[in-house]
Amino acid sequence: MTLLDAYPLVALIADEPAAAEVEGLLKADGAQVPVVNLCEVLDVCQRTHAVPEREIRSVIEPLLLAGRLTAVTSGMTEAWIAADVRARYYDRKACALSLADCLLLAHATTAVEGIATADPAVAEVARAEGLAVISLPDSTGARP
Fold it and tell me: For 56-77, how does the pLDDT look when each residue is reduced to its tens digit (9 = 90+)?
């Protein structure tokens, strides 16, 4: 199972360059997304891409209902790991990891095939932590 950063779902909804690859990941064996990253998806799609909530729901809800996407919640274990990751790696200019990014990385310490992301900082830290990274193209086509 692949763990998704917020960007893959944003790319799917906003039809960005990674959309087809994300569809492939979802069809292969499904994917997981931490709830905090799903919240980021909803925010970015509405605020940045001006996608109405009903359109976002029309993409996300069928994925959840079909079991191709699972929303996972964070607990105390992930909170401690996320805080540790941020303390060790965060740098405002060189490695600007959000708390959502750190929770994603914390969830990746469980058995998943890899993290799908277009975020260079997330990819860098995941690799430093020995996690597999599925590099997706960002909106310009660049991969981390």
Answer: 999 999 999 999 999 999 999 9
Q: Model pTM?
A: 0.90
Helix spans in the chain (H): 6-14, 19-29, 35-47, 53-66, 76-89, 99-107, 120-128
One of 3.40.50.1010, 3.40.220.10, 2.60.120.1440, 3.40.50.2300 is the CATH number of 2-135, namely: 3.40.50.1010
Residue 78 contacts residue 98 (beta carbons within 8 Å): no
Name the token pair of 86.
């941020």
**Angle between helix 120-128 and 99-107 (nearest 10):** 40
